[in-house]
From TrEMBL:
The species this protein was found in: Eragrostis curvula
Segments of this protein annotated with the region Disordered: 37-57
Biased composition (Polar residues): 37-50
InterPro entries per record: DIOX_N, IPNS-like_FE2OG_OXY, IPNS-like_sf, Oxoglu/Fe-dep_dioxygenase_dom, Plant_2OG-oxidoreductases
Descriptive protein name: Fe2OG dioxygenase domain-containing protein
Record-linked Pfam families: 2OG-FeII_Oxy, DIOX_N
Cofactor(s) demanded: L-ascorbate
Domain Fe2OG dioxygenase residue range list: 211-312
Keywords assigned: Iron, Metal-binding, Oxidoreductase, Vitamin C
Length: 368
């Protein structure tokens, strides 16, 4: 199955694979608290673009992933905790996830090294073709990226895609490759637990998850300068089932559902951030929700983040699980694939608030 979807990608475009536009896995959402009318020449930062002073109120969802491998009663408790975090927040952090600090640090080191390369070296990966295996850029045409540089590429199967990755710095392929393999293991472990929490068998669609897509979005945010906007990445939700985020320092904010306000997520030692994506909301038939989040520039230091986005193979459709659809819970979303997502992006390049998830919504008689 791996070879079949890899071959499909290679036959669908001249460059050997598909990739995303500047959001690379992010489907934007319109958040009423955010305006996008500040001109490039403005030196006044609107209040809504200032970072939040509020840390996420305790208890912030933190999951000890190592407990999933203990006795059945302990595992069941962790599954329940993950299910609650998915329902109430759409995100959580994981500790004791089995990825060594060394592997995490060297991935950040590799990313930092790439962004320090001469401009002409990095710009060799710049392209307007959204179906490039590796894509670099420093700004966005769609108001998603506001102040960041990014490098985006496929990571699974690693043996198929690593040949397209940058050869400079020399450590990049080795260190980023090691991290990509480890973080994918964590993603599959989390998928099993989330499916259990939904009342589905942990082996539900297992082969499709095993053969699915992994996309790495490697981001560099500058230290904030006086008078500049403090938003590095505008509000958005992520494509796919899960995004696992590694960050070098604090800078992530989430939209708190209960207060409709931005909350700063605390940076815990050796923790990874986990975001529920659009296709997880679809699969769950709306029982768990995608999380709206944004990146804030750090006034103390530049920030590196590495987002690992996980989904089905490009043409594999994601639909609401039949087990979660009934008379009381009718189907809320149409089925869709990664390829459909790409088509949606390309058809809405000039739409600042193109929301992929909303485009999948099934309207009922009550909505009309």
């Amino acid at each position: 199955m791996i070879s079949s979807w890899t071959g499909m990608l290679k036959s669908s475009c001249t460059d050997g694979c598909a990739s995303l536009d500047s959001s690379f896995g992010a489907s934007t959402v319109q958040v009423k608290a955010i305006r996008s009318n500040m001109s490039d020449s403005s030196r006044t930062v609107p209040q809504e673009q200032l970072p939040s002073d509020d840390l996420h109120p305790r208890p912030m969802p933190v999951i000890n992933l190592g407990h999933l491998s203990l006795d059945s009663a302990t595992r069941s408790g962790v599954v329940d905790d993950i299910a609650k975090a998915c329902r109430d927040f759409g995100y959580f952090q994981v500790i004791n996830h089995g990825i060594s600090q060394s592997i995490m640090d060297t991935a950040v080191e590799a990313a930092t090294g790439f962004f320090k390369l001469p401009s002409e070296t990095k710009e060799a990966f710049t392209s307007d073709d959204l179906r490039q295996p590796v894509r670099y850029d420093t700004s966005s045409k769609d108001s998603i990226s506001m102040s960041r540089a990014f490098l985006k590429h496929y990571a699974h199967p690693l043996s198929d895609w690593v040949q397209y990755w940058p050869q400079q710095p020399p450590i990049y392929r080795k260190y980023m490759g090691s991290y990509s393999v480890e973080v994918r293991r964590v993603a599959l472990q989390l998928m099993e637990a989330i499916l259990e929490g939904l009342g589905l068998n942990k082996e539900y669609l297992q082969e499709k998850f095993q053969d699915g897509l992994q996309l790495l979005s490697v981001n560099s945010y500058p230290k904030v300068s006086h008078g500049d906007t403090t938003i590095g990445l505008a509000p958005h939700s992520d494509y796919g089932f899960l995004t696992i985020l590694l960050t070098s320092c604090q800078g992530l904010e989430v939209l708190d559902r209960s207060s409709d306000s931005w909350k700063t997520v605390q940076q815990l030692p050796h923790a990874l951030h986990v975001h529920i994506g659009d296709h997880m909301e679809v699969l769950s038939n709306g029982r768990i929700k995608t999380v709206v989040h944004r990146a804030i520039l750090n006034p103390e230091e530049a920030r590196i983040s590495i987002a690992s986005i996980h989904g089905f193979a490009p043409n594999e459709k994601v639909a609401c699980a039949e087990e979660l659809v009934d008379e009381q819970n009718p189907q809320k979303y149409r089925e869709s694939s990664f390829s459909d997502f790409l088509d949606h992006l390309m058809a809405n390049m000039d739409n600042k608030h193109r929301n992929f998830l909303e485009s999948l919504s099934v309207r009922t008689k009550e909505d009309n």
